[in-house]
Design a protein that fits this description.
This protein is α/β, with parallel strands linked by helices. The chain is 43% helix and 11% strand. Helix 4 packs across helix 6 and helix 10 crosses helix 11. The chain binds zinc ion.
């Protein structure tokens, strides 16, 4: 495991890309998010064999293959995690996970706590899950999938450490968190919302994972802000600070061919912002990426299925009656195209160190994205 707890999201940039496990199939990819040793967002671990590799960090891919094939039963991974935490002499009952069935926004989320949480700690975590699920449901109109198994694996201390979403062998999510995480830390967490946004997008071929991470990076802030968990100005300032990390550097060959941390996360997020602004500029301010992505949901596109980016974007475009996403994709996938972010912030009325400006030419677009 390369993930470690770091500081809050202010310093999450870097080259924290890591790939675990063998890649055996165009669509069998797993996004993972967490914080690296330097407080970076290191949500770039894509592991086909993620479950086995996470539980067996030193397993060779061959071993992981065997493990993955041999354990298809529900909750095996949890049982294994619980067993690894158990100490000799502990009664068998104490080693069992604690299951809490939670319905939220029309979906059923099965919370699977490792046995080391107290009842009070589980309750804090449960409320955090509800908050994140409601925020993401608000953005997408509903929770992206009808059912989810969510393993909450406790560790010493406080803070949300890492998260990962798996499409295989069945849809589930795993989050590692300090058992003493406070309500304030839960309220500030972005990891769980980021993972839940992944649920709303079909799995994509490896070269297109920037689209998945870009949507998760971009929408996570919007969903939390729309739910009142984050201030709008904070979102815009955060993007102004971090979006430049997504710009192409010398030697860049386009988003599909430049799998660096910056391009995957912030290059993908920049794609989303540009598309969102253009859609609202060309059509109606109230029809943008949010409405387009809801169209993908309505068409059955979520993490349970694997679609190429072209299909996702064509369906998203159709939902708002434009071709903005597909056009931008064509422009950015195979060639380096720097975005004039300074001009974009100016037009949107996002001023460094100052209040958001309502007299800017695209202020109505900015407000439509996020007041
Ligand atoms: Zn991610």
């Amino acid at each position: 495991m390369l993930l470690a707890r770091g500081d809050h999201r202010t310093n999450r940039h870097g080259n924290g890309t890591a790939v675990h496990g063998a890649h055996h199939g165009a669509f069998a990819e797993v996004p993972q998010v967490g914080r690296g040793a330097a407080g970076r967002r290191t949500c770039s671990i894509w592991a086909t064999l993620g479950v086995a590799m996470l539980l067996e960090p030193h397993a060779s891919p061959a071993h992981a293959h065997r493990v993955a094939a041999a354990h298809r039963t529900r909750r095996w991974w949890l049982a294994a995690a619980a067993a690894s935490l158990a100490t000799p002499g502990v009664a068998a009952d104490d080693e069992q996970p604690v299951i809490v069935d939670q319905s939220v926004a029309g979906a059923q989320i099965e919370l699977q706590f490792t046995p080391d949480f107290s009842a009070a700690q589980r309750e804090h975590a449960r409320l955090w899950v509800i908050g994140a699920a409601e925020a993401v449901s608000g953005y997408f109109e509903r929770f992206p999938v009808p059912q989810l198994e969510l393993l909450l694996q406790g560790s010493e201390g406080s803070g949300v450490v890492s998260g990962a979403t798996f499409g295989e062998p069945s849809l589930h999510m795993r989050v590692r968190l300090g058992r003493d995480t406070t309500p304030a830390q839960y309220r500030d967490d972005w990891v769980l919302a980021h993972e839940m946004v992944h649920l709303a997008v079909p799995r994509v071929p490896r070269a297109q994972r920037w689209l998945h991470e870009g949507i998760a990076t971009y929408v996570e802030s919007l969903a939390r802000a729309q739910a009142g968990l984050l201030d709008a100005a904070q979102v815009w300032r955060g993007w102004q600070r971090e979006m430049p990390l997504g710009q192409p550097r010398p030697g860049d060959r386009g988003l599909d061919h430049t799998p660096t941390w910056g391009r995957i996360y912030w290059g993908g997020a920049m794609f989303c912002l540009l598309a969102d602004v253009r859609m609202r500029q060309r059509g109606h301010p109230n029809r943008g990426l949010q409405q387009a992505l809801r169209g993908v949901q309505r068409a059955g596109g979520d993490y349970r299925v694997a679609w190429p980016a072209e299909r996702i974007l064509a369906i998203a475009d159709a939902a708002v009656g434009m071709t903005t996403l597909s056009d931008l994709h064509r422009d950015m996938k195979d060639s380096a195209s720097a975005v004039d972010l300074a001009a974009l912030w100016r037009e949107l009325g996002v001023v460094e160190g100052g209040p958001l400006r309502d007299d800017a030419p695209l202020a109505s677009v900015r407000r439509a994205i996020l007041s």
